[in-house]
Structure formats: C-alpha cells, structure tokens
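User: Hey, quick favor. My workstation is busy. Could you predict this chain's structure for me?
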Amino acid sequence: GLLRASAHFGAYVNGIDIDYNTVHGLGKACRKNQQWRGPDENIRANLSQSDLEKYYLDALVSDASQPSWKKGIYFDAIISDPPYGETIVLGRTLVYWLPVYTPEYTEEMVPLHPCMKLISNFEQKLSNHTTRLLITMEK
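Assistant: No problem, here it is.
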C-alpha cells in the first residue's frame, strides 16, 4: 500500500520486508473465499495493475532496522514504520504510521530523535479505541 501510494505521486519505490512471503506474494490470501495468494498478489503486480510499474526499483527480503545498503547509499524520503531514518539525506523526510491505543495515548509517546525535527502529526481514527498517526519528520 505505501509503495503504490508513493509511486502514484511519482516516487521511485524500493520495498523491504523481513517476511519472504510478503515480498514475493506467497502464503495465505487476504481475499475473501480464497485460500492462497494468486500470481497477481505481489508488489510488482500491484504496481503494474495501476500502471505504476515504471516506478518499481526492487523489493528486498531484509530486516529494515539493519543496514542493507552499501555505505553512501541514501534516499530522499523513507515512508515506513519506524525506526528506519538513518539512510535519509540531510534535510529530507521520514514519514511513518504510528499505531496508537487511544485511551493510553499522550503526545510524549511519539518517538523523537535529536537529529530529526517533528514536522507534522496527523491522526486517522480507526475505531473508538484505536487510531494511527501519520508522523512526518525532517532530518
């Protein structure tokens, strides 16, 4: 979902997930009345169905919290679940969703870092007790 949305706005996308099945579109299906994922349920096919495949760079099976890149490789923006901001170019942006259990939430729960400036914190209400925050930070 994040890669498709980013490609829609013209970003070249590269995906990383620790789960091999997620990267390659294998395993249990999320569609109703379907047991296993079909050949059209993977990252590249998802982008192709939206005529966005030209923005697809690659997808890696990797732990995104560990360096997967050769030293000196940097991105202009990273859109992810935290904490993957160390390869962002200075002055560029990290955007991520932060899931929140509403009854326990306080603004102090938003992860901050001395090298990152909080730009915005927008809420998307999911239910009476849950929400997610779209956090934007600049390095």
